[in-house]
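Can anyone check this?
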Amino acid sequence: MFIEGFDLNIRLFRWVNSHHTVLLDWFFKGFSYLGTGWVLPAVVAFLVLKRDYLRLKVLAVSVFLESTLVYLFKKLLNQPRPGAVLDDVHLLVNLKQGSFPSGDTALAAVLAVVFSWRSPNWVRACLALYVILIGYGRMYLGVHFPLDVLVGVLLGLLCGVAVLWTLRKGQPNLRIRDNTEIRS
């Protein structure tokens, strides 16, 4: 139980989790679904309709890698959720499995990396906001400590970037954006 032992981790969690309004409760309950696996069928359908099979392959490998690592960390570390170790948690969603790392923020980060690839800056900014809102929402809903969220984001970013980097190594002239060529 090392995660909840960090004072800053607990203080930041309590600050985020204590600022509730009816509107934000409603918003984060709904928005949090965009960080779960339930969003993947819609994302896959979108990519198939666009015939963006390369991005679909990158997404599949990245999500597989991210999901495997999140599962292993959760099983190996078995960290409790905030409501299990702290009093007065404003819990809006009841989850039972381990807390560390946040799988929802890891998935959001993977999606952000994959969709940022070859996208304009405004799309990248929207995706960054998406990841921030998913992460903040996990603390707001009372299901994750800040460190869970931070490591989830870093893990998701690492998985997405690693898959893209590996793809680039296999195809040295792969274009990151439509007008920019990567050179080894």
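Reply from J.R.: I decoded it. The chain has one domain: 23-170.
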